[in-house]
Amino acid sequence: MAGTIIDITPMRRRHLPAVIAIEKQVYPRPWSRTLMLGELDLKESRAYFVARDGRRVIGYAGIMFVGDEGHITTIAVDPGAQRSAIGMRLMLALAKSSLERGVNAMTLEVRASNRAAQGLYKRFGFVSVGARKGYYQDNAEDAFIMWVRDIDSAEYGELLAQYSLRYASSTRFELPRIVSGEIS
Known about the structure:
Blueprint: E1 6-10, H1 16-26, H2 33-41, E2 46-53, E3 56-66, E4 69-77, H3 86-100, E5 105-111, H4 115-123, E6 127-132, E7 143-149, H5 154-167, E8 171-173, E9 178-179, E10 182-183
Parallel strand pairs: 1-8, 4-5
Antiparallel strand pairs: 1-2, 2-3, 3-4, 5-7, 6-7, 9-10
Helix pairs in contact: 3-5
């Protein structure tokens, strides 16, 4: 993937077959197509993105907005594209989209055993604030609850600017436009 441009764009229905294929590879209890379609229809309170290498979907991420908070609902990268900073780019898109929506804090749950994901989230300022015992239904594994606050601060803006600069030559971002409160 070195030397290629990664496109981060809003997820569309046409992306769902590839998204669901990745979902089945990386999660023991994958989301259904019906659930994904329902999430995509909630444009006022959700943002979903895909990462593409050419026409091939290699990752995706989503966030739910509630008031001034964003709850990251999902993020996954095709196993063949992992360790290529795709997760970094998707997290950057989620953070930028959150700021455009007036969000000042983000949260998520992550498997206690998923050290790689925890490391990614920590790079974006997330800290563990607690646990949900037996949260994951497939094996009753605990989830760590992680938060990052004050994402609208100058300090956090500088962090995002550094990441944006790092990936500027290899990533094209297309975020949903918000015009007069309407999302397009």
